[in-house]
Amino acid sequence: MSALPSRRHLLGAAAALAMPWPGRAQPAQTLLNVSYDVSREFYKGFNAAFAAHWKKTAGQDVTLNQSHGGSSRQARSVADGLEADVITMNQHNDIDMLHARGGLVPANWATRLPHNASPTTSVSVILVRRGNPKNIRDWTDLGRPGLSVIIPNPKTSGNGRYTYLAAWGAGVKAGVSHEAARALVTRIFANVPVLDGGGRGATTTFAQRNLGDALVTFESEAPLITREFGDGFEPVYPARTILAENPVSVVDRVVDRRGTRKLAEAYLQHLYSPEGQEIAARHNLRPRDPKVLARFARQFPKVATFTVDEVFGGWTRAQQEHFNDGGLYDQVILAAKGR
What we know:
The chain has helices at about 5-20, 40-60, 70-80, 90-100, 115, 160-175, 180-190, 200-210, 220-230, 250-260, 260-270, 275-280, 290-295, 310, 315-325, 330-335; strands at about 25-35, 60-70, 85-90, 120-130, 150, 215-220, 235, 240-245, 250, 285, 305. By secondary structure, the protein is an alpha/beta fold. The strands form two sheets. Strands 4, 5, 6, 7, 8, 10 and 11 form a seven-stranded mixed β-sheet that branches. Strand 1, helix 2 and strand 2 (about 60-70) form a beta-alpha-beta unit. The protein is globular.
């Protein structure tokens, strides 16, 4: 009579069955990417490529979910409990919020990936009606009397904050005082008939509702507007504009609870891969990879740019001085309404 298998042998066999074998399909995982308003088309394309990459390299199916809206509103949703595995924003301030409110990410989150954790960039441009009937060439033109300018709300939208800082910073970089720059921004916001909650809402107001003479948006959004709403628009590149960095981070508290850290980290790292960079360029985001940028150079005009750090001392200081309640932005809006 053969001996019964020992408990040690049974446990060893169970462990062997539980180990991932080459070629064996692994249980599917899900990942939620919470992002800003006008990035949805890029991540739709990137997600399909990453799912194929992950299946090939890890042998695992993955369901990649997206959530989009005004960037600050999205970040607050994550801080309030929306279980994002990764957060992909258009300004560092919104990810810093996750550290300040509950320690969802570490203070040094931006050091964990190259280029200050920003795999792509864009610039703020002025979209005008075809033929530029109002002859809008630069930020100062947006403050002319009688002009109507569409800008998303800087309180809820990174796009709106970049617009505000772009107009202010361009003046400072051109040599005017901060007081004169503030006066220009006040004139511009006096010309804003409605403050939509995010960049996509502002696009709808301008392109579909046909309201406004100009829309300030990211360079990456302009071709999408033409594709969706026709060729009745053209971008104007100001003499100086702001460089919009698009930072990304794993949401540590979430991935550690859900067991998705390895997947989430691979997802963000793939943004820096040649494939991820090329998908970004095809969606009109400026890639960091110099070889990919060189191949797409014709679609990214050279323009003089400045950063939030250069003019405003970084996002933390800009938030405190300009966008916190009672800050300079609130004062600008009150002055604009009183004009």
